[in-house]
Amino acid sequence: MSTQSNLSRLYRRTSVREKALIFGFIAVMLLIWGNSWLGRFSDWRTQSSTANAELKSQQQWLAQAQVFESGLARALERVDPSKTYNSQQLSGQIDTLLRQANLSANADLNPVRTREGEIFNDHNIRVRLSRISISQLIQFNELIKRYTPYITMESVRISKNRNRPEELDARFEINSFELKDTSL
Fold first, then answer.
1. What span, in angstroms and rounded, lies between the C-alpha atoms of 172 and 125?
2. H or E stretch including 25?
3. Can you tell me the distance from the alpha carbon of 5 to that of 19, in angstroms, rounded to the nearest whole number?
4. Which has more pLDDT, 177 or 49?
5. Which terminus of the chain, N or C, has fewer Cβ atoms within 10 Å?
6. Any bridge partners for residue 107, and if so which?
7. What average pLDDT is seen over the chain?
8. Are the C-beta atoms of residues 144 and 174 closer than 8 Å to each other?
9. CA-to-CA distance for 97 and 92, rounded, in angstroms?
């Protein structure tokens, strides 16, 4: 006997209720399968559109590669690689500047944070000065300006000292960079 005849005989022997249950079970299974398939199709379309947008963005960057390379070359012409600072040199130089401004007793230096890049490393250090005068603040600012563009201030927050309003508290975010390849 063939499989088809066995299925046909089994179908004729089942009651209407059993046929409805089998049909309902098959319909539920088809709904679950179809919903799963639609979900995967939707995910595929989302990923495809995201990939296409990323590809277009990368093509625009590549189309402007000459502009970026010439901008980098111009920027590197203005920079002396021997004057850039690594993280230890930045910390040491800031300490020296604080000593020159007679602020080392009032200073609190955080560890240097480094963000590595392909061409240069970016170093940041936070300096907190407590109970200083406005003239000391100006002097420290002038000392840092001498090392521009190799050492720059990203941000400065100044507040009056709560105990002695004639004195200031200041927080500096100081930045420097280090060229990785000195032959650039």
1. 8
2. helix 16-63
3. 17
4. 49
5. N
6. 129
7. 89
8. yes
9. 9
Quote the tokens at residue 138.
Answer: 């100006």
70-127: pLDDT as tens digits: 887 787 677 777 788 888 999 999 999 999 999 988 899 999 999 998 888 999 999 9
Rounded distance between C-alpha atoms, residue 99 and residue 165, angstroms: 24
Instruction: Find the range with the poorest average confidence among 5-9, 75-79, 89-93, 138-142.
Output: 75-79
- One DSSP character per residue, 107-145 reads EEEPPPEEEE-SSEEEEEEEEEEEEE-HHHHHHHHHHHH
Contact 1, 9 (CB under 8 A): no
Decide if 140 contacts 151 (C-beta within 8 A).
no
Report d(CA 78, CA 14) in Å as an integer: 90
pLDDT at 1 over 70: no
Residue 14: strand, helix, or coil: coil
d(CA 37, CA 42): 9
Amino acid, single-letter form, for residue 24? G
Q: Are 173 and 124 in contact (CB under 8 A)?
A: yes
- Record the tokens describing residue 79, joined without a space: 């920079």
Q: In this structure, which amino acid lies at residue 74?
A: R
